[in-house]
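for the writeup, i need someone to sanity check this before i put it in the appendix. the sequnce is what the collaborator sent (i think, or maybe the updated version? ugh). structure was predicted straight from it, no edits. if anything looks off just tell me and ill rerun, i have time this weekend
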Amino acid sequence: MTKKVDFPNADYSLQWLYRDPDQHIYEDYNTIGVPDERIFEDIHRVLEILHAAQLLIPVNLNRSKKFEFSGTSIDDIVAEIRQWVRSRVIKQKLSIYGHGIVKLPNGEEAVQKDLVQLADVRFTERSFKITTAKTIWVPVVLDDTDNYNWQIGLAEQNAPRLENCLAAVFHKLKLEVTPGLEEEDRSKPVWQKGFKLYPSREAIESAYIEDPPPPSFDIAKYLLPKTQANQ
């Protein structure tokens, strides 16, 4: 049996918003209460990608036991979602929760609840988010005692899996994504540029002072250039 782990949640969420700027085709939901079939096609495509990578094995909608999936295949799960939405017990938007597989540095795999979510799938427009509150994707993190901890092996095993899934969704659905491929978001302790995640410079510099990593650690691939404001 695969063991379970419980990596802590950050007090913020890392997210990528996928959106179709041509929204008028979805406006009928407000009058007839039935979302465009392409909403369900998108859900199916995204879940296929996340499930194949074992980042999201769906369990329920909206963290509700009332909406736990009875099937395990993506076809069955999307069929259940379609039934709930068309019967109007789920309205306006939905989020899909479950668990995922974390690859550990020792080669083992472990189950992590709420690793990645497909969130805020809206019925009035073609938009959704892929989100995570975990920070296993970067090589250094700040723990509950305000100390910086290195987790290089964990990041190297898992960050490419997330990046590849985000890119696969982008290329499969051909939607606009925020942050964009060359867009940076430095508003959180973990920085984003496109589909890649980086520790903040403060985290890297503080961790080097507190406890330098092994000499073999390639810091260059985890650094975003300094902005004019922090040079």
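The first strand starts at residue 3 and ends at 5. The chain has a mean pLDDT of 92.
thx in advance!!
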